[in-house]
Write a structure and sequence with these properties.
The protein is of the alpha+beta class and 559 residues long. The protein is 21% helix and 31% strand.
C-alpha cells in the first residue's frame, strides 16, 4: 500500500487508504489449492441483480458455479463470507498501472522553443510500434494499491508523448508480466502531449501531425494490399512499424484512445475521429456534460476521470471567517462551481443516456473511494457507479465474455466486502484476481478510555509514543512536555525533525493538543486526544481527512 507523508510525526505523514492491511500477495503463496468456496453472501452478479445468501465456487481461476444451496467440494478452501457482499472485480478503463515512470520523463513545452521541425519518430513522441505488455512491472506498487480498493483488471497504456504506443488489458496481480496480460494490442494510445523542443509541441501541431501520419498509414496499407494481390510493376512496400500500427484502426477493428485534458482537447479528438474515420475512445474525461450533443454524435467510448478537485475543507465550528474582498469571493465561487461540475459529470451524462466507465490515469488510489462517494452524493446512483466500474468497461473493452459480472465461466475476479461497497465504513475483506485471493484484515480501533476530570496526573516528561499506522514501519517518536506553572507546551521529535507545540490542554487525565502542518500537498490539522494513567498513556491521533490512528506511550524514567 502507498505510504503518504503526514505531518503528525514531525513532518512525516504515513497514510494508508481504508485502514486495511493486506496479507501475502498471490505470488508469495504456494498454490496449495486452486479451488475456493464463498457461501452465505449477497452475490451482486451485476448492477441490480443480487442473489441473497448465495455462494460462489472458484476453480482453476474461473467461476465454476454461482447460486443458492451450493455445497463446498472436498478440495475447496472455504472462506468465511457470511452476510458479506460479492461483486465482480472492478475494471480500470485507462491507466499507467504497473508501468514504471522513466528516469527522465520528457514533458511537452506546449508551444515554446521549437527548434527541430523534422525530428525522428522517437524524438517527436511517436512510438506506435511499442507494446505496453513489454513494459509491465509485476512488483510496481500501484498494482497492489489499486487491488486493495477493488480493482482487478486494467487497460494500461505506455507513458510518453503524443503517440506512446499500444495498450493492453492486464490483471492486477501475478508474478510474471506475461501471465498478467489478458489482451495485448487492445488499443492505440494518443494524447495532446507535445514533444520538448521539437515539432510537434502544440495541440494544433499534434493534430496536423496526426492527420499526416494517419493519411500516410492509410496509403501504406493500401499499397501493401495491392502489392500482395499483384506485385508486378509495383515497388516493394517499405517496412514501417510506426505506420503499420494504425492498420487495425483504419479497418475499424481497434479504437484509438485519446486521453483528454478538458473540453478543448475532447473536441479536437472528436474532430480527428470524424475527419479520418477511426473508432474513438475518450479517457480521463472532465466536464463532459458541456458537450453532450457532441459526445452522442461521436459514438466514442467514454471513460470519465476518477481524479476530482480536492474538496474544500469545512471551517471549524466557532472559527471566525476572515473577511474577503469581492475578487476573492468571486474566485471562491468559481472554484466551487468547477468542483460541482466535476462531481456532477457522471450523473449528468447518465441522465442524458450516455454510458461510461472510469479511468484512473491521473487519480491516486487513496482518493478513488472518496471521489466515488462525492459523485454518488452529486446524483449518480450506486448501481450506475457499479456499472461504470464493471459491466460498462467490460463492454467497451470487448471483455464482457470473460469479466464484468459474477457468472459461471468468467474469470474469477471478485471483490468481497463486509458491507455494501459504497456504504460508509465498508471494508474490503478479499480481492480475487484470476481465482487467487488477497485477504485484507480490518483492524479494530481501540476505544479511548473515558477521561476523569477529577483525576490528578502529571503530564510533564519525555514520552515514547507508538502510533499505529497500518503497514507502515517507522521509528517511535518522542513527545516532550514541559509544565510551567500549569501552562503546558512541548515538542514532538522523530527522525524527520522536531514539531514545536505551543499550546496543550490537560483536563483531569485528558491531554489534548493540535497543530497544523503541510502534508500531501495540503495543510493538515493534526490532533491528539490522550488519557494519562500514571506513566502510560493511550488515545488517538487524527489527521483531517487522512483518518485516525491509535496511540500508546510510556514515560521515560527520570535519570
Amino acid at each position: 500500500m502507498m505510504k503518504y507523508l503526514l505531518g503528525c510525526i514531525c513532518s512525516l505523514l504515513l497514510l494508508l487508504p481504508s485502514g486495511l492491511s493486506a496479507q501475502e500477495s498471490a505470488e508469495d503463496r504456494p498454490p496449495v489449492t486452486r479451488a475456493f468456496f464463498l457461501n452465505n453472501a449477497f452475490v451482486v452478479q451485476s448492477p441490480g441483480k443480487v442473489i441473497d445468501l448465495g455462494g460462489v465456487l472458484i476453480r482453476d481461476g474461473l467461476i465454476q458455479a454461482v447460486g443458492k444451496d451450493l455445497k463446498a467440494p472436498a478440495d475447496a478452501k472455504v472462506l468465511e463470507a457470511d452476510s458479506m457482499y460479492i461483486y465482480a472485480g472492478f475494471i480500470d478503463g485507462l491507466s499507467n498501472l504497473g508501468i514504471p515512470k522513466p528516469k527522465e520523463e520528457e514533458r511537452g513545452n506546449r508551444g515554446r522553443g521549437q527548434r527541430e521541425y523534422n525530428p525522428s519518430y522517437e524524438r517527436a513522441g511517436i512510438q506506435t510500434e511499442r507494446s505496453v505488455a513489454d513494459m509491465i512491472s509485476p512488483t510496481d506498487k500501484s498494482l497492489s494499491e489499486m487491488r486493495a480498493i477493488g480493482f482487478t483488471a486494467a487497460h494500461v497504456v505506455p507513458r510518453g508523448g503524443m503517440l506512446p504506443g499500444q495498450g493492453a488489458v492486464i490483471l492486477l496481480d501475478g508474478d510474471k508480466a506475461g501471465k498478467m496480460v489478458v489482451s495485448e494490442g487492445s488499443s492505440l494510445f494518443a494524447q495532446f502531449q507535445g514533444a520538448s523542443g521539437v515539432y510537434p509541441n502544440t495541440d494544433m501541431a499534434i493534430m496536423s501531425k496526426f492527420r499526416e501520419l494517419y493519411t500516410q498509414a492509410r496509403q501504406h496499407k493500401t499499397h501493401g494490399q495491392n502489392y500482395a494481390k499483384n506485385a508486378r510493376g509495383m515497388s516493394r512496400p517499405a517496412q514501417n512499424e510506426v505506420l503499420d500500427a494504425f492498420g487495425q484502426s483504419i479497418d475499424g477493428q481497434r479504437a484509438i484512445f485519446f486521453a483528454v485534458d478538458g473540453i478543448k482537447e475532447m473536441y479536437r479528438a472528436i474532430s480527428l475521429s470524424k475527419e479520418l474515420g477511426f473508432p474513438l475512445a475518450l479517457a480521463d474525461v472532465t466536464m463532459g456534460q458541456k458537450a453532450i450533443a457532441d459526445l452522442k454524435g461521436s459514438s466514442a467510448s467514454l471513460f470519465l476521470t476518477l481524479d476530482l478537485p480536492k474538496a474544500k475543507e469545512e471551517g471549524k465550528k466557532g472559527e471566525k471567517e476572515e473577511e474577503t474582498d469581492k475578487e476573492k469571493m468571486m474566485l471562491e465561487k468559481q472554484r466551487a462551481a468547477a468542483q460541482q461540475l466535476h462531481e456532477e459529470q457522471a450523473a449528468m451524462l447518465n441522465k442524458a443516456g450516455l454510458s461510461f466507465g472510469f479511468s484512473t490515469l491521473n487519480a491516486k488510489a487513496k482518493d478513488i473511494r472518496p471521489n466515488l462517494e462525492r459523485m454518488i452524493k452529486a446524483g449518480l446512483t450506486e448501481d450506475q457507479a457499479l456499472a461504470a466500474l464493471t459491466t460498462e468497461p467490460a463492454r467497451m473493452l470487448g471483455l464482457s465474455d470473460i469479466m464484468g459480472t459474477v457468472e459461471k465461466g468468467k474469470i474469477a475476479n471478485l471483490v468481497v466486502t463486509d458491507q455494501p461497497y459504497f456504504a460508509k465504513g465498508s471494508n474490503i475483506r478479499y480481492v480475487f484476481v484470476d481465482g487467487m485471493p488477497s485477504e485484507y484484515e480490518v483492524k479494530k480501533k481501540k476505544k479511548k478510555k473515558p477521561g476523569d476530570p477529577e483525576a490528578k496526573v502529571m503530564a510533564a516528561g519525555d514520552w515514547n509514543l507508538e502510533i499505529d499506522v497500518p503497514m507502515a514501519e517507522m521509528a517511535s517518536p518522542t513527545l516532550t512536555i514541559v509544565d510551567e506553572d500549569g501552562s503546558l507546551s512541548g515538542k514532538l521529535v522523530s527522525g524527520m525533525g522536531t514539531q514545536e507545540i505551543s499550546d496543550m490542554s490537560l483536563d483531569g487525565d485528558n491531554l489534548t493538543f493540535s497543530y497544523t502542518t503541510e502534508g500531501g500537498g495540503q495543510t493538515v490539522t493534526v490532533s491528539f486526544d490522550l488519557t494519562i494513567d500514571g506513566n502510560s498513556l493511550e488515545g488517538s491521533m487524527s489527521a483531517g481527512s487522512f483518518g485516525s490512528f491509535d496511540v500508546e506511550g510510556d514515560r521515560e524514567p527520570k535519570k
